[in-house]
Design a protein that fits this description.
Rossmann fold; ATP binding; 10 helices; globular; six-stranded mixed beta sheet; 21% strand; single chain; 10 strands; 42% helix; alpha/beta
């Protein structure tokens, strides 16, 4: 379980990015982190794994306070935290398999990593994960030959190759089309439930967050202003998080876009069957 307690980040300028942020995430729970740009979402994720140093507070991952760890212990603790990035963070010239196996770099010796000679058990697990994310036919492809959705699936498999106890996911659908975005979100949620992995997803798409996450935390100016089920995101709450907007029209427009896409996909399937 993850427990964030009174986490605060103050920059040298005196600006506060986070103020007394507190919440717990249980095993298998997927939390959507929403809020306007500059609300502190990315800072919060990076403070949890200490890519950004918190000013105060605690981050407990299964009773280990990550904030108090020294360099060596922190490096070992980060093995337990899988990161999935908006821009995929793959090595373009390496194959899909090699990118997934890079999730084991924190566990193997320098020479094994340098020569890319990983233990058989790690390779077998990578094959299983690539099958799980639907990429078993692309094992030997270079990463730069993949579509955006395929690259994100490689990123998911790489994070899982670490044997993580927590997933931190930064804008996993920002560069993807609506259909692929739903597929990626569905895959993440299914895997978290299968493996009882807690996950925090920094996501701009409110409708996707409502559709796929178990719980939503809304940040405004570095403070938690909403923490509850997706059904609790009323127009008043969304206005508190983002400011005034015609939220009914937004939801209607999104629903119309999804219906139009579903209709187009059905028509394409019908045409293919007629060939």
């Amino acid at each position: 379980m993850l427990s964030v307690q009174k986490l605060t980040k103050t920059y040298k300028t005196g600006d506060k990015a986070l103020t007394d942020v507190s919440f717990d995430v249980a095993k298998g729970q997927v939390v959507g982190l929403i809020g306007p740009s500059g609300a502190g979402k990315s800072t919060l994720i990076r403070c949890i794994n200490r890519l950004v140093e918190p000013s105060s507070g605690k981050v407990l991952l299964n009773d280990t306070d990550l904030v108090k760890l020294g360099t060596g212990d922190l490096r070992r603790a980060r093995r337990r935290i899988g990161m999935i990035f908006q821009e995929y963070a793959l090595v373009e010239r390496l194959t899909v398999m090699e990118n997934v196996l890079s999730g084991r770099l924190g566990y193997v010796s320098f020479w094994r990593s340098f020569t890319r000679k990983f233990p058989g058990a790690d390779i077998a697990k990578a094959y299983r994960l690539l099958d799980r994310v639907g990429l078993s036919a692309h094992v030997d492809k270079r990463a730069d030959a993949l579509s955006g959705g395929q690259r994100q699936r490689v990123g998911i498999a790489r994070a899982l190759e670490q044997d993580p106890e927590l997933l931190l996911i930064d804008e996993p659908t920002a560069s993807l089309d609506p259909k692929t975005s739903r597929q990626i979100m569905r895959l993440i949620v299914e895997i978290c439930r299968e493996q009882e992995l807690p996950a925090i997803i920094n996501i701009h798409d409110v409708v996707l967050a409502q559709q796929f996450t178990d719980r939503i935390i809304g940040l405004q100016a570095g403070k938690v202003v909403f923490d509850g089920p997706p059904s609790g995101l009323t127009e008043d709450v969304l206005t508190q998080i983002y400011g005034a907007e015609d939220w009914t029209a937004m939801r209607k427009g999104n629903a119309e876009d999804e219906a139009a896409q579903a209709e187009a996909e059905a028509e394409a399937t019908k045409m293919l069957r007629a060939l």
